[in-house]
Amino acid sequence: MVSKTTTLALWGLAPFFRQALAGFLANSQNNIAIYWGQNSANRPNSQQRLASYCTNTAVNIIPIAFLHSIKNPTLVNFANAGDNCTTFPNSQLLSCPEIESDIQFCQSAGKTLLLSLGGATYTEGGFSTPSEALHWADTLWSMFGPPSPFSSTPRPFGAAIIDGFDFDFEAPTQNMAIFASRLRTLMDTNPRKRYLLTAAPQCPYPDHAMDSILQRVPLDFISIQFYNNYCGAPSYISTAAVQNNFNFATWDAWAKRAPNPRVKVLLGIPGSPSAAGSGYVSGAQLEGVLAYARRYESFGGVMMWDFSQVQGNRGVLETVERGLRGEWAGEGAATRGGGGSGGPGMGMGTETGTGTGLAPVPVEGTGAGSVPRWGQCGGKGYEGPTGCQAPYACVHQSEWWAHCN
């Protein structure tokens, strides 16, 4: 077996990892999870191989997305990374030795690697019977958990063992809590390692797709998608004593009565203005959201979608890091150019003209009005008021969002 030191030396990165953040820290507010595998930016070289992102010391959790179909595991999709996979003999199931090697490398660098199940294109609807749910939980554990000499189940990641499973179901399912509970039992029977079970619900509470899992299954953390919804990060109002829409407080209350009362809640945000539709925030607004969320006992850090977006958006990861440390740069400072906090191979801060590397651009034709600071005043499909309270102006953030600042 190759030792951790030897593995890092082969990559020429051993000194770099002396200060690396460990994997998921249950008692920390500084966890940063960034999804990999979907190349949502869809630009040339916008998604590099998994191992290249593990040289970044800021990130300690990487969910690999997605296993789109549980009952037909041939539907594993990792965008352009799948080009380096083959198929098992007489099967359509992918065999991915490059991802196998990268998972092992990333784990040797102290990262937590999860396999995310579902995604927006998941259409199976769960399982028709409890026994079917149990069967597929056992099958997935054989495919991605510790190898067993008594199992002939093909393993897409070979000898690599993931650190747990992440649930990202966005439509109602059946018997999914039974499936998740079975995975929890299988993982907890291993005395040598703590495996993680996580979920990524939408911010409206209760989550319409995964409420049974959230209410019945002990999870280690959840990464709430505070975007694409009325309750997202852009709805946070810094001057409001009570948040009417941004509902982190609601999820903190859920955490206190959850099956695992020590569950952590991660603030999920898009990695760039073009990521995930709508809901991107940056600069002083992002700092304000982080400062607010850090007040809550359940707060455990930040989730971002996804690496391909973050690496092309100068400074956004740096702003998140600074916010998690409680170090505020002051209004506007976080929107100026400057490299991200990526290490060798990360590619952060290499592009210009996107994300926080640009100064905000006021939207033309908006005068004095009723919208308070940070309130929405424009964006595709928006039909509300566009005039901002003095002295603020409506500022374009993306095709989908403009707010008063």
From TrEMBL:
The entry's keywords: Carbohydrate metabolism, Chitin degradation, Chitin-binding, Glycosidase, Hydrolase, Polysaccharide degradation, Secreted, Signal
UniProt biased composition (Gly residues): 335-356
All copies of domain GH18, residue ranges: 30-327
SUPFAM superfamilies for this protein: (Trans)glycosidases (SSF51445), Cellulose-binding domain (SSF57180)
A cellular-component GO term for this protein: extracellular region
Compartments where located: Secreted
Domain called CBM1: residue spans: 369-405
Signal peptide region: 1-22
EC number: 3.2.1.14
GO process terms (BP): chitin catabolic process; polysaccharide catabolic process
Reaction(s) catalysed by this chain's protein: Random endo-hydrolysis of N-acetyl-beta-D-glucosaminide (1->4)-beta-linkages in chitin and chitodextrins
Record-linked InterPro entries: CBD, CBD_sf, Cts1-like, GH, Glyco_hydro18_cat, Glyco_hydro_18_chit_AS, Glycosyl_Hydrlase18_Chitinase
Domain of life: Eukaryota
One Pfam family cited in the UniProt record for this chain: Glyco_hydro_18
GO molecular function: cellulose binding; chitin binding; endochitinase activity
Region feature (Disordered): 330-357
Family according to the record: Belongs to the glycosyl hydrolase 18 family. Chitinase class III subfamily.
Name of the protein: chitinase
Species this chain originates from: Cercophora newfieldiana
Upper lineage: Eukaryota, Fungi, Dikarya, Ascomycota, Pezizomycotina
